[in-house]
């Protein structure tokens, strides 16, 4: 999670380093008429590419922005193209490791659901149950990629990843209240609101935007059957993830209202009991003060 936070900060810095026109040119499928690239030609030569226009997804703009920053350092400008491609490779591996972790988490969730049918299917020590659940998850990934490409799962991956951070912030805010540290609630509540607003609005744009939304792709007579099927799958998955995230948000807000306004008693059980070391440090701090 710390590495993800570091990548997020680097992505923001890279986006701010680029001129807005260059950023739009890289991340737009169809470059708007009002966009006139400023440094895009020199950046294209710097990173050793033939064309950077329409390289959507965020990976290229992040790598270009990072390359622009590091190219100002001594001896880095001559190997900027190598650094650019290294950054692209790093992002690809980072995404693959995240998908790997997501696959294992999905297997646990599927086994939790399957144990309703039979207790042994939910046993993590049962080899057959592990293999069976893994086949379901990997087969689902394969279905998404077979009927498209990596871009098929990219919208879902981005939304799920960002909503996961928003849910984590909501849960963390609730734990802060239960730890009697409500005065620090703003530390997690402000980024939580930002993540929910941005991610939910982006999800709705991906589904309903008339220019590039999935609904418009389904209604377009020129769309291929594979594109239509992948869009339908993405709409179902994105809508499910979005609804679950909103449920978590509403439940958190309801609990905050009960704890802070109605003064309903609560019990903290989400954290581990303090270790002996932490007790000793606390006693030492009290003694020194």
- Mass-distribution shape: globular
Taken together, the total number of domains comes to 3
- Roughly how much helix do the residues carry, as a percent range? over 70%
Strand content: under 5%
Output mean pLDDT: 84
Class inferred from helices and paired strands = mainly alpha
Q: What is the string of helix and strand elements?
A: HHHHHHHHHHH
Total DSSP E strands? 0
Oligomerization status of the protein chains: single chain
- Secondary structure tally, helices: 11
**End-to-end distance, in Å?**
34 Å
Our Rg estimate from Cα atoms comes to 23 Å
Unreliable stretches (pLDDT < 50, length at least 5) are none
Q: Characterize the main sheet.
A: none
Furnish the topology, listing elements before pairings.
Layout: H1 2-17, H2 20-27, H3 40-47, H4 59-70, H5 80-114, H6 127-146, H7 150-178, H8 185-208, H9 214-219, H10 225-261, H11 276-288
Helix pairs in contact: 1-4, 4-5, 5-6, 7-8, 7-10
Features:
about 290 residues, mainly alpha, 3 domains, 11 helices, about 70% helix, about 0% strand
């Amino acid at each position: 999670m710390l590495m993800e936070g570091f990548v997020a900060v680097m992505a923001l810095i890279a986006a701010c380093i680029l001129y807005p026109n260059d950023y739009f040119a890289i991340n737009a499928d169809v470059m708007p008429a009002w966009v006139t690239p400023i440094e895009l030609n020199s950046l294209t030569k710097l990173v050793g590419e033939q064309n950077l226009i329409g390289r959507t997804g965020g990976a290229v703009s992040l790598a270009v922005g990072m390359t622009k920053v590091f190219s100002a350092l001594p001896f880095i400008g001559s190997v900027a193209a190598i650094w650019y491609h290294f950054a692209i490779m790093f992002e690809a591996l980072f995404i693959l490791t995240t998908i790997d972790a997501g696959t294992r988490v999905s297997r646990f969730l599927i086994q939790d659901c399957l144990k309703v049918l039979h207790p042994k299917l939910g046993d993590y020590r049962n080899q057959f149950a592990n293999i069976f659940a893994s086949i379901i998850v990997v087969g689902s990934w394969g279905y998404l990629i077979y009927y498209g490409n990596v871009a098929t799962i990219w919208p879902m991956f981005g939304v799920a990843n960002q909503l996961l951070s928003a849910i984590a912030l909501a849960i963390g805010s609730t734990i802060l209240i239960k730890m009697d540290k409500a005065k620090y609630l703003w530390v997690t509540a402000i980024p939580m609101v930002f993540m929910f607003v941005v991610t939910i609005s982006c999800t709705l744009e991906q589904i309903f935007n008339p220019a590039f939304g999935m609904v418009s792709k389904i209604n377009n007579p020129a769309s291929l059957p594979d594109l239509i099927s992948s869009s339908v799958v993405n709409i179902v998955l994105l809508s499910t993830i979005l609804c679950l995230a909103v449920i978590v948000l509403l439940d958190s807000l309801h609990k905050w209202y009960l704890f802070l306004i109605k003064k309903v008693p609560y019990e903290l059980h989400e954290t581990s009991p303090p270790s002996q070391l932490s007790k000793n440090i606390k006693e030492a701090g009290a003694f020194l003060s």
